[in-house]
Amino acid sequence: MPSQFLKVALEAAKNAEEVITAYYTDDMEVELKEDETPVTLADRGAEKVIRETIKQAFPDHGFLGEEYGTEEGDSPYVWIIDPIDATKNYIRKIPIFGTQIALMKGNDLILGVSNAPLLNELLYAESGSGAFLNGKPIAVSSVTQPEAAMICHGGLRWFTEKGTFPGVYNLINKVARSRGFGDFYMYHLVASARADVVVEAAISVWDIAAITVIVREAGGKVTDIQGRPITKATDSLVATNGVLHDAVLDYFKDA
What we know:
- With 255 residues, the protein is an alpha+beta fold.
- It is built from 8 helices and 15 strands.
- It has 2 domains: 4-138, Fructose-1,6-Bisphosphatase, subunit A, domain 1 (Fructose-1,6-Bisphosphatase, Chain A, domain 1, 2-Layer Sandwich); 146-252, D-Maltodextrin-Binding Protein, domain 2.
- The mean pLDDT is 95.
- The strands form 3 sheets. Strands 4-3-5-6-7-8-9-10 form an 8-stranded mixed sheet, sandwiched between helices. A 5-stranded mixed sheet has the order 12-11-13-15-14. Strands 1-2 form a two-stranded antiparallel sheet.
């Protein structure tokens, strides 16, 4: 039985989907933010409708979103929002983009929703309740050896900037298959046993909060590249089926 938190999060994701698909046209307006990353009316409109939907149910909760920043609440609950993860894909009509909504209580991530409307993939999870794809339970793979694994990775130049490129290079050359899907989608693949490992650098908490809960509840493990727990300050990520986690971290021991 989904909690009221999850019901509201799913409603917010669907409301955001309406905004996002309405703006998915050939003449969308694109601006550059101060950090030189693009933003559209869909990003801003989707985050607004997510916040409004959640506030109606939980007016005392706080928010941390990519587009509208921090809004303090009067409770230990904070919603973490990325209205369109992979905005650059969205702009270029690559259908791999999605809405990320997570709930944190204190320092603990307890809920995650990841909705990819053009892929028809809605993943969600709550702590202790398992993970689901379009309403059906999912679980990570049982691959036990890196040589048999499929790895997904984010942009390679970020590993160079973080000083971790040798690790990811050696890992890619060890595994059976590697693909640079990037963004949220590679975590969808790990959570549903279609891939086994994700390594990513140069991230923000709204990029990975929701999928952290989803992968974990699917039976996997998520840490940063040094093996530390996920926090609001995390800027790198390793997500695996759990069995492979220590072997993958070994590639980054000297980073």
